[in-house]
Amino acid sequence: MQGDIGIETGDGAPGRGHARTAFLKEHWNAIWRLFFIQSSRNEKTMDGLGFYAVISPFVKKWGGPANDAKEIARRHLDYFNGGLYLSSAVAGVVANMERRRSSGEPVAPERIDRTKTALSSVLAARANHFFDGLLIPFGLTIACTSAIYGSYVGLAAFLAGYNIYHFQYRIGGYCSGTELGEGMGGAFVARLFREERLVAGCAAFASGVFAALLFVRSRGAGGGGFLVWGAIVLAASAILGKRTSPVRNVGVLLLATALYLVVYGGAFARLW
User: Left if phi > 0, otherwise alpha if psi is -120 to 50, otherwise beta: which for 67?
Assistant: First the structure.
């Protein structure tokens, strides 16, 4: 099936159609730019300038005698919001389609733009849920639990786990896109994050362990007053979360907790 897709898109797999070194030599200038795709974010085009920077090494080649390089540049300097993790896959798909168009295949610019927009929405939503909603909270919980005991093992585990997925989908997504073009959509999304349920379960378990451990350690460090304060903070967080932004909510709660810790040895201590 993959072979059929490769024939339909006019692009063979990097590891089979030609040597891996040849693929890296051709695409290295785009691959390292993937890590800076959000460095020029702005309100008008979001990551449009960063997206164009990824594919810019190929634009003149795609222009050729049949296509106008300026027209290609104009289209891909437009609005783009594909998220941090899988926008590289969209860049790979666009590179595949533009290259096929420059070689004479009937690939309309409108078709490229539609594919780019559709994939950016689907992949961004899926990646943000996995990374921001599951993997990062799970890793940070492990790191914080380890830090309570003065160990850096949890931090190392978090960085390792995060970057295994990060590099796999940042670079692997681009390679899959250049290989399969728009044919990678359904198959690629179906393969994404097959460990999602496992990570979600581990994250829930780790959060429970951390909450219990934090309760015990707080009781030993600050006494009953500190536990009461923690309960008040949680209640205030739930209330403020509906009225203010998360950043302001966290700032207010951190400031209040800092003030509590400063005065704890004075007036508050006499209450217990």
Answer: beta
- Hey, where are the domains in the chain? 2-122+175-192, 209-272
Q: Give the Cα separation of 106 and 89 in Å (integer).
A: 22
pTM to 2 decimal places: 0.72
* Residues 6+ away with beta carbon under 8 Å from 16: none
Phi and psi based region of residue 205 (left: phi greater than 0; alpha: psi -120 to 50; beta: remaining): alpha
SS3 call for 80: strand
CA-closest candidate to residue 120, choices 163, 73, 85: 85
Q: Residue-wise over 39-62: b if at least 16 C-beta within 10 A, else e?
A: eeeeeebbbbbbbbbbbbebbeeb
Q: What is the pLDDT along the chain (272 residues), one digit of tens a residue?
A: 333 333 334 444 444 544 678 888 888 889 999 999 888 888 888 999 999 999 999 998 888 765 688 888 989 998 998 888 889 999 999 999 999 988 888 889 899 999 898 888 888 888 888 888 889 989 989 998 888 888 889 899 999 989 988 988 888 889 888 888 887 766 666 677 777 888 888 888 988 888 777 777 666 655 666 667 777 777 777 777 677 776 777 777 778 777 777 766 544 444 44
Which one, of 118, 136, 135, lies nearest residue 81 by Cα?
118
